[in-house]
């Protein structure tokens, strides 16, 4: 049984951002409690309360977030994948998404997850809660993901549901890693603590977060999606 925790950034249709990001963090379900306890121990060590969030990364908490980053990079059995939608202003929902930004939103979740899933495993998938109307679309997304893997009995995905990020340390870690990718690709530089965290990731991986990785890359996978021309 594998648990997958998903988050998104810059996902609103008219937020004036040029990119849109989706991220998934996953690990065996049997490791969730242990991994969460290690994150909680770091929070206690650094007297950090509340959620870990990318928008909370600051010079005052720099070492805490660097240690959390180091924990992810060096811990076995925990992985991250992101899908980055470039040139969001080029999206043509009328032509490709039945006029619906929400349809495109769930298409990107399919693109994010279908490379992770295997019909030989079972999964619990948790999305950061978006709104109170997402239940029907999550059911459809589950069916599409299962059908794509020829799991017509829908046994591969045990559950696919929305949760609040405050309920899960691993959901919060996904937010943190996705924030690093977003900050790097958007070319931002005003927060030295965020840059220190990004530099640490890039030095450890031996590559920049600006570029797409091969599909075989599991630890920190990045896929760049460019919309078709209008």
Provide keyphrases for this structure.
single chain, alpha/beta, Nucleotidyltransferase, domain 5, 6-stranded mixed beta sheet, 19% strand
Summarize the topology.
Blueprint: E1 2-9, E2 20-28, H1 32-45, H2 62-74, E3 79-85, H3 93-96, H4 101-114, E4 123-128, H5 135-148, E5 157-163, H6 169-185, H7 192-205, E6 220-225
Parallel strand pairs: 1-4, 3-6, 4-5
Antiparallel strand pairs: 1-2, 2-3
Helix pairs in contact: 1-2, 2-7, 4-5, 6-7
The major beta sheet can be summarized as: 6 strands, mixed
How many structural domains in the coordinates? 1
Could you estimate the helical fraction of the residues in percent? Answer: 25-40%
CATH C-level: Alpha Beta
Strand content: 15-25%
Q: pLDDT under 50 segments (min length 5)?
A: none
Tell the overall outline.
globular
Specify the CATH homologous superfamily. Ribonuclease H-like superfamily/Ribonuclease H
Query: Strand order within the widest sheet?
Result: 5-4-1-2-3-6
The helix-strand sequence is: EEHHEHHEHEHHE
Average the pLDDT over all residues and give the rounded result.
Answer: 86
Provide the gyration radius in Å. 17 Å
CATH architecture: 2-Layer Sandwich
From the helix content, strand content and strand pairing, which structural class follows? alpha/beta
In angstroms, what separates the terminal alpha carbons?
41 Å
Count of DSSP strands: 6
Distinct helical segment count: 7
């Amino acid at each position: 049984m594998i648990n997958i925790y998903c988050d998104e950034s810059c996902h609103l249709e008219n937020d004036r951002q040029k990119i849109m990001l989706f991220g998934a963090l996953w690990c065996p379900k049997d490791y969730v409690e242990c991994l969460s306890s290690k994150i909680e121990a770091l929070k206690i060590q650094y007297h950090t309360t509340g959620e870990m969030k990318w928008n909370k990364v600051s010079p005052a908490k720099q070492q805490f977030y660097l240690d959390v980053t180091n924990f992810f990079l060096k811990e076995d059995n925990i992985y991250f994948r992101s899908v980055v939608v470039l040139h969001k202003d080029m999206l043509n929902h009328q032509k490709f998404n039945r006029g619906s930004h929400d349809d495109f939103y769930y298409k990107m979740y399919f693109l994010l997850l279908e490379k992770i899933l295997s019909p030989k495993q079972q999964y619990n998938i948790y999305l950061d809660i978006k709104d109170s109307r997402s239940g029907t679309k999550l059911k459809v997304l589950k069916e599409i993901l299962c059908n794509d893997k020829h799991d017509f009995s829908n046994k591969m995905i045990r559950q696919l549901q929305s949760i609040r990020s405050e309920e899960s340390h691993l959901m919060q870690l996904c937010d943190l890693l996705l924030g690093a990718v977003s900050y790097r690709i958007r070319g931002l530089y005003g927060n030295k603590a965020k840059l220190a965290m990004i530099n640490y990731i890039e030095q450890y991986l031996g590559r920049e977060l600006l570029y797409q990785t091969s599909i075989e890359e599991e630890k920190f996978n990045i896929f760049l999606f460019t919309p078709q021309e209008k």
